[in-house]
From TrEMBL:
Keywords: Ribonucleoprotein, Ribosomal protein. This is 30S ribosomal protein S9. PROSITE patterns: RIBOSOMAL_S9 (PS00360). One of its GO terms (biological process) is translation. Belongs to the universal ribosomal protein uS9 family. Residues 55-76, 90-117 are annotated as: Disordered.
Length: 284
């Protein structure tokens, strides 16, 4: 049976608990070699000896050298010159390596410190910009608030306003009364003949719905009747604003009665008959 297996397979290994049989077949000659070995667990002393033999400078086997290189007694030692003993545990670094590491660490530390300083400076700049923005916003909010206005009334219970229109200037006083209007110590009906001028003067009282509630006294000079009527209207509007700004200012401001009319007579130009009028031009 064994000869049949050897002839079929060439090599057969039969193992059991006590023996290991190597069956080797070479050509037509068959040789059966039996080697008896006992299975045993290696001890700690044997492992240490094996490690010492493995990590020793003298190898336990010989390696084939390339042709053309003669073998020398110390040639085989170079193969394991890099091995380190595990028992001794010599893992120390050289002093030069320590110096290089310390230099690299110092450079890294300096870079870290410089980076931290830059970050701190940037943070300070951002805080300063934010503070400026907050102050500007606070000023905007304060300016956006409507100013607090107070009534301006003298000891006689009168409010005063000064107005102008073209070259006319007027000073106006108002006080609670029955709606009498006096201009230069005359009734305004006698002073202004045209109805348009009278309507100009009474326009602020009509806008504030205070007709017949105040007596008006005005002193006006300069300009013509239209300019004087416009000056009185401007002064009367300012006087009403000073008397009660919370009540009378919004309608007067909305209608533009508190704004001085900047329009004036345009000057005459040289070569012109008037400000814009020119003489007749003939080509030939």
């Amino acid at each position: 049976m064994i000869k049949h297996l050897v002839s079929r397979l060439g090599t057969l290994t039969v193992r059991n608990n006590a023996t290991i049989a190597h069956l080797v077949g070479v050509g037509n000659q068959r040789i059966v070699a039996a080697t008896a070995t006992t299975t045993s667990v290696p001890t700690i002393t044997q492992q240490q000896q094996q490690q010492q033999v493995y990590f020793s400078s003298q190898p336990s086997f010989s390696l084939p050298r390339p042709t053309g290189h003669p073998e020398s007694p110390n040639a085989l030692r170079k193969w394991r010159s890099h091995a380190v003993s595990l028992e001794l545990g010599d893992y120390g670094d050289d002093d030069d390596d320590d110096d290089d590491d310390s230099l690299a660490l110092s450079k890294t530390t300096n870079q870290t410190e410089s980076w931290q300083e830059e970050e701190w400076e940037l943070a300070q700049q951002v805080q300063e910009i934010q503070r400026q923005e907050d102050l500007k916003k606070q000023r905007w909010l304060e300016n956006a608030k409507p100013p607090v206005r107070h009534s301006i009334i003298d000891e006689r219970g009168r409010s005063y306003g000064r107005g102008g229109r073209k070259t006319a200037a007027a000073r106006v006083w108002i006080q609670p009364g029955f709606g009498n209007v006096v201009v230069n110590q005359k009734d305004f009906v006698d002073y202004f003949d045209r109805m348009t001028d009278r309507e100009h003067i009474l326009a602020p009282l009509a806008a504030t719905e205070s007709l017949g509630k105040f007596d008006v006294m005005a002193i006006v000079h300069g300009g013509g009747l239209t300019g004087q009527a416009g000056a009185i209207r401007h002064g009367l509007s300012r006087a009403l604003n000073h008397y009660n700004p919370d009540k009378y200012r919004p309608p007067l401001k909305r209608l533009g009665y508190l704004t001085r009319d900047p329009r004036k007579v345009e000057r005459k130009k040289v070569g012109h008959l008037k400000a814009r009028k020119k003489p007749q031009w003939v080509k030939r």
